[in-house]
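REQUEST ID: PR-0412
SUBMITTED BY: lab tech R.K.
PRIORITY: routine
TASK: structure prediction, single protein chain
INPUT:
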Amino acid sequence: MTLAISDRHEWVMQSEIRNMTIECDKVGGINLAQGVCDTGVPPEVRRGAAEAMEAGINTYTNFAGLSELREAIAAKQRRFTGMIVDPQTEIIATAGATGAFYCTCLALLNPGDEVIVFEPYYGYHVNTIVATGAVPAYLRMSPPAWSFSRADLERVKTPKTRALLVNTPGNPSGKVFSAAEMQIIAGFAEDNDLFVFTDEIYEHFLYDGNRHSVLAMLPGMKERTITISGLSKTFSITGWRIGYCLAAARWARIIGYFSDLVYVCAPAPLQVGVARGLLQLGDDYYQGLAAEYLAKRDKICDALARAGLTPHVPKGAYYVLADVASVPGKTSKEKALHLLKATGVAGVPGSAFYHDDGGENLVRFCFAKDDDVLDDACRRLNK
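STATUS: complete
OUTPUT:
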């Protein structure tokens, strides 16, 4: 017998995002590659978790999450979108939004099922689809509008198409899917009897008057939409791993069973901390968050433009793709490494977000940084 690793290993190799973080650490640079959220955690969230630990909430929870958290998520959804969700049957608290997506794929996709993915995409989405035996089908969007049509969807569709994946606001492009685009997706999904998985983790990071459209709110879409989100970005707690999915009860139940199998439950006291933040933080917090990140976006985009790296200004999320055609190197990886060596600022090669050579003249920068760190990065780029 010859011992060997599984064939799946190709899809779980170190991501380019983490690779650039390692390269950045080697030179002591400024890491604008990984979306780690260096900004502060709200005191209400920290206190809630600490108090839960002291109160002994440190053991397994219900696989769907603590009732306190699920009720807070339901209240939050109703408050911001008007969507009514049953906290007892239609919400599963998960080990991050990535955990929610992984368990959704396990629960609802069979090997060989195809999932339409809008490109540029977030690598973990595609890798998760493939790791669970499904197959990504790519719909290419191009800057600056990152637009698509019903005809584009029809061209990608095959008899094996089972679902679409919509990430809005999007990583890495910052695209915010409009209400009209959501109508196109809804019509296509209904006509072809498809699931739609939505990753809405950046829902509160919106700029220039753009609004977050919730696909599950459209007529007939709640039954076929799995809404995925979390608090990693909103509360700057990427290491806590608290996410969730909203789905019709029959889908939520099986997604929850897979979450139980893979993760058992999300960290108990941290669930409480997140619940307290959802219940105690007012509209001023979310408005302030958007304003703060708008200033950060404008700062990094201005610096990139002055450095001759034209930014594709994002409408949401906290990443910007920049045109690096003028930077030495044959590939986006070579260009990103050249920038790191020349400026000490790390970004992610655009090839990490495309299945072919579509991103070779792009590099993604994350601006979820404290102002002093971001200011230093901007100075280095300008220099």
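NOTES: The CA atoms of residues 122 and 171 lie 6 Å apart.
REVIEWED BY: pending
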